[in-house]
Design a protein that fits this description.
The protein is 28% helix and 30% strand. It has helices at residues 11-25, 40-52, 144-161, 171-180, 214-222, and strands spanning 3-6, 36-39, 59-65, 71-80, 83-92, 95-104, 114-118, 127-129, 137-138, 162-164, 187-189, 198-199, 204-207, 228-229. Strands 3, 4, 5, 6, 7, 8, 9, 12, 13 and 14 form a 10-stranded antiparallel beta sheet that branches. Helix 1 (11-25) runs antiparallel to helix 2 (40-52) and helix 2 packs across helix 3 (144-161).
Length: 232
């Protein structure tokens, strides 16, 4: 495994970065003010976010099928090297799922890419490897600074684009959907954003310029999260 050297003068910062390193390498690493040898890709993302306050720039993909069978799919993601980190949600009539995810080695060898995702809609909770043959729970593979940043992006993404059916503040959205005779799902695109979607015969979509549409296709193909009843 390729190693890189990073200097962490603050032991608290070092401890945060080592959370992800211990997940991959075991508990042999210790904090030190001296340069620490770490896997360059993992250390690069974790330390850069942590030490510089870097804000990730997400790309978003929203797909709305207004006609029966109606559904809503939405995700954002950020890229770092050959890996992808993000959040995905999908709702159909009577079903709903949402979780954070990581695509490991997605831009290296697609055939060996692995999908990790949070079991619940909680980046800090237990995760699973959907590319494995078992459903064994694992610790979150993301470093703390990246978890925090994904949680921040997810909050902004929801505020801008989506609303939950059972949100007490969603009464105007529900009336707007009723006026268009759209199916209301557990999660929906905000009515003021519908005109931002590019309309085709089969779907309405929004894609950030330069987005890789293969991300949503890969996530939907390999996602094994049991769909929950449409409730929060």
């Amino acid at each position: 495994m390729k190693l890189g050297m990073i200097a962490l003068g603050d032991n608290r910062n070092c401890a945060d970065v080592l959370l992800v390193l211990r997940y991959r390498l075991g508990d042999s690493l210790q904090c030190s003010a001296a340069p620490v040898a770490v896997p360059s890709a993992l250390a690069g993302l974790a330390s850069y976010v942590l030490l510089t306050g870097y804000s990730m720039q997400p790309k978003t993909h929203i797909r709305f099928l207004p006609d029966e069978p109606s559904s809503v799919s939405a995700l954002f993601y950020v890229e770092y090297g050959i890996d992808v980190y993000g959040w995905y949600t999908h709702a159909e009539q009577g079903s709903f799922c949402a979780a954070f995810f990581m695509l490991e080695n997605f831009y290296s060898d697609r055939s060996s890419a692995a999908l990790y995702r949070s079991i619940e809609d909680d980046v800090y909770g237990p995760w699973a490897n959907d590319s494995a043959s078992t459903d064994t729970e694992i610790r979150c593979p993301l470093p703390e600074p990246v978890r925090h940043e994904l949680e921040r992006i997810q909050s902004n993404f929801m505020d801008e684009w989506l609303f939950f059916e059972n949100d007490p503040a969603a009464s105007r959205e529900l009336l707007a959907y009723a006026s268009h005779r759209f199916v209301i799902h557990a999660v929906n695109v905000k009515s003021r954003k519908l005109n931002r979607l590019e309309k085709t015969k089969t779907s309405w979509e929004h894609k950030t310029p330069g987005i890789d549409s293969n991300i949503m296709d890969f996530v939907q193909k390999h996602w094994r999260l049991n769909e929950k009843a449409a409730q929060q």
